[in-house]
Amino acid sequence: MWASFYAVFRKEVLHILRDTGTVRLVLFIPLMQLTLFGFIDQTVHDVPTVVVDQDRSSDSRDFIDQMRASKTFKIVTLTSSSEEAHKQIREGRARVGVVIPPKFHDRKLRGDGAQLLVLIDGSDSTVSSQALGSINGLVAEDNLPPVANATIAAGLSAHPIILFNPEGRTANYIIPGLIAVLLMMVGVVLSAGAIVREREQGTFEQLLVTPIDPIGLVMGKLVPYLVFGLIETTLVLLLMRFAFAVPIRGSLVFLFLSAVLYLFPLLSIGLLISTRAKTQMESQQMAQSLLLPAIFLSGYIFPFDGLPTFLKVVGSIFPTTYMIRIMRGIILRGAAPLDLWPNLAVLTAMGVVLVLLAARSIRKVA
User: What CATH number is attached to the domain comprising 136?
Assistant: First the structure.
């Protein structure tokens, strides 16, 4: 028995050590994911904020300085137009808008009860709740001196308005982002075995001896999975709309065009993995190693604004980060292409670059 055990044990250890790609993945992936996810902090900070200062007084400037000092808000625009605040929140450039009305200083001085209007993007429930809590904290702190002196009858107050998801429904927040995550699973995982599967079956060499263009080969590999991804998008949207009652405020045509732009870089990543992997098991492991970082660092579960700078840079590499913003913008905020053009431009650039890299990688394999 012991001789048999030793022989089989030795054979299995040698087999594992020869498969260096799998060994590297098994050892590297847990360490990489632990390092990345250990830095994630759910405390929101540097939330993009637009301030509408219609008073232009010393009191309004003091409150703006208090917002900056809180570290929760990052004031990206200071304007006097409330329409501009609505526009920037709809476009996704700001998550919070604080409107300081005219005669703010005079009402505080007379004790008539000065009031702030707080516009909050409700498409991200975590950010909206923490931003509202921070605003209420600043208001309470501002009211402490008058209460202590007992000289002012009415202090400062905040009137919040939750935009786009006023009920705070979790489904409205989770499902639009889930579409991007599901498409990544389909796009990367399925296409990751496209080349390596043919190599294992011995048909890839036969394909290469034919007069076929590398880019034509890449596109021929991508389009079937692209169609499959669009079918899945349709099914998920139907379930989202009729089973979970999530309204779609934007254009369906724009939504599907965005899905096409999103699937191209995903499928190209899968093909790149397929040209690097030696076996289908290795290709699936490499594809799976991208899923968790893309999910955790894209803003789907944890607020993107709460990530450290290093993790924001890493999260910006994944197409999922931009697609989640697009899906929430179209479905929840009714955003138009011009509102989301920076995210669309990034996805388009990623698609072009990754398709060319996949074609080049196939040439090297050949």
Answer: 3.40.1710.10
Distance CA 34, CA 29 (A): 8
CA–CA distance, 138 with 130 (Å, rounded to integer): 12
Contact, 25 vs 281, CB < 8 A?
Answer: no
How far apart CA 255 and CA 59 sit, in angstroms, is 44
Q: Which domain holds residue 319?
A: 169-365
Q: Can you say whether the dihedral through the CA atoms of 301, 303, 307, 309 is positive or negative? A: positive
Determine the Cα–Cα distance for residues 366 and 275; give it in Å rounded to an integer. Answer: 10
Do 225 and 290 belong together in one domain? yes
d(CA 14, CA 1): 20
pLDDT digits (tens, 9 = 90+) for 185-202: 888 887 887 777 777 776
CB 67 within 8 A of CB 51: yes
pLDDT, tens only, 227-255: 888 888 899 899 989 988 888 999 999 99
- First vs last C-alpha separation in the chain: 47
What is the value of pTM for the model shown?
0.79
The SS3 call for residue 169 is: coil
Q: Concatenate the DSSP letters of all residues of 214-266 into one string.
A: HHHHHHHHHHHHHHHHHHHHHHHHHIIIIIS-----S-HHHHHHHHHHHHHHH
CA distances from 299 to 23, 108, 134, 174, 294 (A): 30, 39, 20, 11, 9
Please tell me the distance from the alpha carbon of residue 267 to that of residue 192, in angstroms, as a whole number. Answer: 8
| pLDDT for 152 | 46
Neighbours of 13 (CB within 10 A): 10
Chosen domain end from 143, 163, 183: 163
